[in-house]
Amino acid sequence: MEQIERKDRYASAGRAGLSTATVIDHWGNPITTKSDRAVDALNRFTLAFAAHRAEAQSLLDEISCADPDLTLLFVVRGFSISFLMRNDHWQHARSMCTRAKHISSQRGATPREKGLIAALEAWLRRDVDAAIDMLESLVSCNPRDLLTFKLTHACNFILGRPQRMRASAERALKSWHPLIPGYGHALGCLAFALEETGDYETAEVVGRQAVEAEPGSAWAIHAVAHVFEMTDRQKVGTEWLESHRIAWSQCGNFAGHCTWHLALFHLELGEIEEALALYPSIRSHIQQDFRDFSNAASLLWRLEQEGCTLDTEWNELARLAKANAFDHGCAFADVHYALILLQAGRPEEALKALRSMRAYAEPRTHHFASVISKVACPIVEGLIDLDQGRIETGLEYLESIQGKTQPMGGSHAQRDLFEQLWIAGAVRWNQAQIAESALQSRLQRRPQNRWAIQKLQTLKDG
Questions:
Q1: Which has the closest alpha carbon to 96: 113, 112, 65, 117?
Q2: To the nearest whole number, what is the mean pLDDT of the chain?
Q3: What phi and psi values does residue 32 have, to the nearest 5 degrees?
């Protein structure tokens, strides 16, 4: 790792034009503070954040103890809160941004700090294009800025922009080398972007290089697991995740997502009991993050496709998800909440959630509301129609969004559920022509996909 000599870690107030001295972080960024301890904790936080490690939150607390007025503390907290994608948390995130602005006006701020505040402010007013432009501009100024690099990656992922995610990572990594702290984490972001843009072969190579450089990089481990999922290499995928279990199991609720991947591998191998046995671990991570609910719901639905009876699990999930179903901070979340309510036998509540989604989205024009209106509402409408026996319109709704779900965010593996819901509906209701055409298309993309082969056989037998 590159080490910065102590004499180089400081910039005088006169040189920086600030009212407070600055300390240089691991990546060459001046941080407005007089506290070595705060910057050391920020360095460790940045690495933990990039690795999705659970101790990231406690490191923020450590930063706060060392320098309670560190500008970046409030910037990071603002972005982190917003990434939960809950409208009822948005005001809290804004208060973090307001605090960061106030501190920067009082003690001064570097251009980077001012840029991050501006990007957060744009993100929170849902001017997502401006926010991404600002973040990418900051990365172009210092391509080795791991914190801003990872924030940019996360925002592009939430917005469902894999091409931009890839281009941003490729540009930045031209300036990296293996001795820079966090190199493996940055390389893992590129691996994931390569996978999401369909370059599976390169993604696997880059992902393995990332894990070799940084064995604890859960995001890189996860990126390679995605390659195995999308190329239907479940056996090697299971072995890969198991061989790196120590690393990803230390990642808080992200460990739940990695467990979800492991369960999907077992399902595709026909190992239903093994997949079912992993559900309690996924359930144990459910708190406020919509991703935890999507992990649980999509696995339960797939398990039911294999003949499992899961009424108790669906009812418990519905009880936990009910309040969230009316928040509408995220289209991807809304669809999963509605699915949970329907699978738990609560169609009236699902219908209320749909009406609430429309009421929220129709008067608003920002990105997240638009995706709810154009993508999430048709999916939920289709699921409700199928549930109520309106087969033709239900399938039409679900068919209408095929190939259009990218703006919801999430990964290809996660959004695959929406295609499966459509196909399974057609198979269940004996719409053979629709089902066979969709399954043949799926098998052209994934010739070894067990689920598709199984559904096609059901049609032939039926």
A1: 117
A2: 94
A3: -75, 95
